[in-house]
Records
---
Amino acid sequence: MPQIIEKKILAPRTNYFRLAAPLIAGHAQPGQFVVIRVEEGGERIPITIADIDTGEGSITLIIQEAGKTTERMGLLRTGDEIRDVLGPLGMPSEVGDFGTVALLGGGFGIAAIHLLAKALRKHKNYIISIIAARTKELLIMEDEMRRVSDELRVKSDDGSAGTKGLVIEPLDEMLKTGRHIDRVMAVGPIPMMRAVSELTRPYGVKTIVSLNPVMVDGTGMCGGCRVEIGGDTKFACVDGPEFDAHLVNFDEFIKRNQMYKEYEKLSAETCRLATAADALASAQVK
């Protein structure tokens, strides 16, 4: 079972995990993900690979506590083991000599663009990274993104980090003033990715988004991650997770993503109650 080499807290409810996974590290590429299962009988969840160290044989995952399994992950510590880590899965990002590339990461999406920025820079692309969070406290990987970017713009909803405003605003300004952008990649909340898609469409700038629908097996068998791309049905786990943003049916994608919200909320609450009960029982034994 993969062991946690290092675990640290990046922001409230957002954790950094470096895992010993030499086979995955030796084959993984930017844009790919793993499916993890914390314990026997637990659910399987997809997590984007944020970094790779082939020498150490490790992969880095940035996990936000948003449900039952991610909250269980938040309880783990350095030295603990994870029951299953399956990967690398999904199609790798397209990496080449594109020219000037703008990478937009909103909130947790910053982790997803980090590895891509490293790869694109090796191909001599000029990297403009735009990252954002609601507050400075929630902003992650600013130093890491600065190291892999030629330009870094930071935005926050309240102005506590960088300048106040939305993650799409610097890109909007660049395009309006005629700055040449060859490609855009956006990862973050669905409304943010949709807004980027609509912003770049009139300019004809190739724009890629990484979709995060519900996944179960990660191999295309369950069909839960169906998305409509250019009128065709695709499976995000095997055909993606990255797609041409201008071909994504965002209305259908949003609708499907909301189908299980109530079940996820109930599962997370059940997990919190079980954890609290275990803590109380342990305290009584002592």
Note: The mean pLDDT is 91.
---
Amino acid sequence: MRPRLALALALALALACERQPVPAPAAPTPLPIRGADLSMLPALRASGLRLLDRQGRPADPLRVLRDAGATTIRLRLWVDPADGVSAYPAVSALAREVEELGMDVMLCVHYSDTWADPGQQHTPARWQNLELDALADSLYSYTRRVVEGIRPRYVQIGNEINNGMLWPQGHAQNGEALELLLARAAKAVREARTGSQILLHYAGHRGAQDFFERLGAIDHDLIGLSYYPIWHGPSLDSLGMALQGLSRRHGKGVMVVETSYAFSLGWNDWTGNIIGAEAQLLPSFAATPKGQRDFLAAVLQQVRRATQPAGFCYWGGEWVSFAGPQSTEGSSWENQALWDFEGRALMVLDNFAAEP
């Protein structure tokens, strides 16, 4: 080929390549579960406090979440609570509202009359002093009954069960007993509603691999972790690596089923807040509305790194200081809610949109 002709062809090819449109980077696949735990909503409504949407208009929290793009509302269920907030009648009624608004229900069954977490897993009063087989039968019957009644899309069997549940019978030190109880709970869910997905929940990421290795034989669909920097460490990369490893090892969807962050270090009642000092924050995220939004976005980036990213639920989003400005028994979570001290929805709701 003559040199001039070759040069002309090369120049034409280069110009043609320059004119080719550069494809835009693909948008992240929407997380199927974009949710919030609104278990305190009945108490908020009973107080008469009205919350606002992002434009400052009065709006019910469920509708605000739905309009922001939320797909799922997580609801806590206690067996025989001292008050009615997390009792079956209130939870089932709220679940119907959620479904009528087109969102899914994630039922978080605590198997306790009160809070259940790694430090406390109290057996309900009605089941105390039962032998293991009788306890397993009671758990099975109860689980089947509540799932048949509420018909949730997702069912969490136990809450933050790092150290087991239904102590002392189901303590993690009694491995065979814990496996029996979880297996009976899972069986009840499957028989009560074929379409429900079962989630196992571990608080934090340290030790999560060993935990799910031990319970790998339990029938479940989703792996859920809690992540609060104050309790589970400052490393988002460690969280992401744990989620990746769990999804790859077990072939299941993974999610951060509890997380939150402060939008302020101030307070709106006289109840001590869980987060109240700079040392409790991550250096990259200030306690501002933007810092709260960016923290959650960073958590979701780690979720998306997993082989099967399922999503997230924000915890305590509605737990504003609805007991009054001088209450000493109000909200310890008020500065981590999804609404500010004026009751207005915060920019963190941007993370619930289908396309981030």
Note: Residues 132-150 form the longest helix (19 residues).
---
Amino acid sequence: MHGAPHPAIVATTSGIDAAFLRAAVEATGEAILVTSVDLTEPGPLIEYANPAFTRMTGYATHEVLGRSPRFLQGPLTDRRALDAMRTALRAGEPYQGEALNYRKDGTTYAVEWLITPVLDGDGSISHWVSAQREVTERRAALEQQQFLVRELHHRVKNTLATVQAIMSSTARSSVTMPEFQQAFGGRIASLAKTHTLLTEDRFQSVAFRDLLRAELEPYDDGGATRIRLEGPDVVLPSGLAVPVGMAVHELTTNAAKHGALAEFGGRVEITWTVSGTKAGRRLTWVWNEHDGPPVALPTREGFGSRLLKRVLATQVHADVVVDYDPDGLRITVEMPLVEEN
């Protein structure tokens, strides 16, 4: 059905038995309709429908004979495709296009048409032959591809903005160039980890537990004593996963440099719960450090503090509480499980 359509079919068997041609048409997987030539309502009228057509539409042969193919159309059928088809047929030309039709059970399907005029002996059009193929899956795949292109464009813009913000904030909070390079490199690597987890999932989402493991696994002793994760299964869409992943990276880096992960015997415990509210589900997670060095109040606000207090609050609409307990740092984050556009 692809390529330039044949200009017309001449109604002659040329020595080929008509019964043989009918058997071939009925055996093909392409849906075939033959209609009368008159395009004005109630025509054109269906004079023949092969078994592939009845399988595709759900109508029996006796239910379609004598009716116009228009009965397959509905509210979602693209009127522009129908107008283009009528224009071509009125000019006596073949037409190839796509539209949305309705089956007998009311479900829709995308169909590709190739409608060709049949000429009689004096060159006049006597019938129309319509070869049809369902292309629902092909159209869905094309729409999915277009969606992914738009999503990729949106994701790249957001990622570049995030990288720019990270670079600016890291530069402000770094004293020396080596310090900047180390901090900036670590943050970009963390961003890459999160995006890797997102791209591995067909739904562009990440399990919260996997996000935590990606950052904390290098510090785990394998005995579930130094790193403990406890909470229900919960999945974060991309709009939540990126800022939350960055926050977890900052907390991990801080714990490795100054907190519980900087000393032998130090422990990090992350627990979380999910609750339902009138506004939707909310995730509450607590980062709790134990048995680390004595906790001191920070002398200046670094990138991690700004990210927790501003980025999470702005991008994730989270409530963040920071407690400097004698036993270790405790961060409580409560956030909606809804990706804001």
Note: The chain is about 40% helix and 25% strand.
---
Amino acid sequence: MTLLDGDLRVVSAGVPLLAEAVAGQAVPVTQVDWRPPLGPEGTEVALARVMADPRREEANAAAVSRLLAAGAELVDVRPAADALDLSAGEFLHAGPPIGWDRASGPLRGALIGAMLFEGLADTPEQAEAALVGGDGITLDPCHHHGTVGPMAGVVSAGMWLFELRDPVHGGTAFCSLNEGLGKVLRYGAYGPEVVDRLHWMADVLGPLLQKAVRAHGPVDVKAIATQMLQMGDEGHNRNRAGTLMFLRELLPDLIDSGEPAAAVAESVRFVGGNDHFFLNLGMPACKLATDAARDVPGSTLVVAMARNGTDFGIQVSGTGDRWFTGPADTPNGLYLGSFGPDDANPDIGDSAITETGGIGGFAMAAAPAIVRFVGGAVPDAIEATRSMYEITLAEHPAYQIPVLDFRGTPTGIDATLVVRTGLLPHINTGMAGKVAGTGQVGAGIVNPPAEIFPAALEALAELAPPW
């Protein structure tokens, strides 16, 4: 309360009930939207230290400017052995670092399937025994190799990858080819149909796409993403328009490839019938953007969100390659067939790079039909996007939302804003079965564990200049 010129004035923080009661007594009142910061006792000190960092404002402006300016062009399709110099027994996976001992069911299932695909084992039992033993086997996060992988995200030497390049900053990012939904490797399935599909993708689809892309020249993936948001996609769990625009772009080159007509038809049928095919182009496009914003001293911009099915991790521009991790939560959403909550594994995948880059769950207002896949109602999708403006540094000039009068998507998660508001990033995602070999069981909405953002602030505070 303050007394000015004999008049009583009230400033109210917190729940509006007090302000309403005071206003009812004809006393002028100002309601302040104040919330205690996210995190344990002592977080206020780290938050204040980071907020006082004289570099922060300029650093964040530089980092988010680089993120927004980044381009994304598909320039090639290559085997991982060639693109990433992977050898037999070297496997990449989604999320922060993890070993077999703590790996989730879907990650274990995907690794077993990759062993079978590479011919490193003849049976799932042999594959598991080799992975348990670890001799000649290495596991490393996709993010450590300029790569992103949906769900389990497992990449092995013989798998083919999209190669995208940022023409503005010169970065390169990779992602596997999308297998479709259901019983697929990325959801932890490893049956004969899964391995057979992977061999067809390596023997037919990958080489055909390579020939078409090289004949076509760079494909502007960012431009497709810009258009798809105005056609009902959000870029994470709805990619129908993006997939068809990509196929339209390459179709003449596929037809003119000189490859057998049956192979071309089968490939076109596969891509056109797989609504998620563009996801594996949108993800590396977002990685190019967030990687462009890395390593800016003093910046609190989140540049990666990733999950391995056990841990959820983030990386922040001002703290380099350090991961801040906490337990991954299980998404809340819709289930396929007879599956239910007891069948679902905790959150998994690198696909949250889409939200980190300003699409996916942050663009749900652009795709109201997404609620039929992840649950909720149309107003929920719109509110999900609106709330994310409170924890982001910018509105994306290219990614616009028609229903919000073409307002740019909320882009550039600021760790300080997450801690100050208590609002956690909104992610829509698929759900993998927790038992290896199950495959997809549903789709839904999930948030990161709250404690990882205060942990990032503590590290940023330690790196800040003296008071």
Note: The longest strand covers residues 392-401.
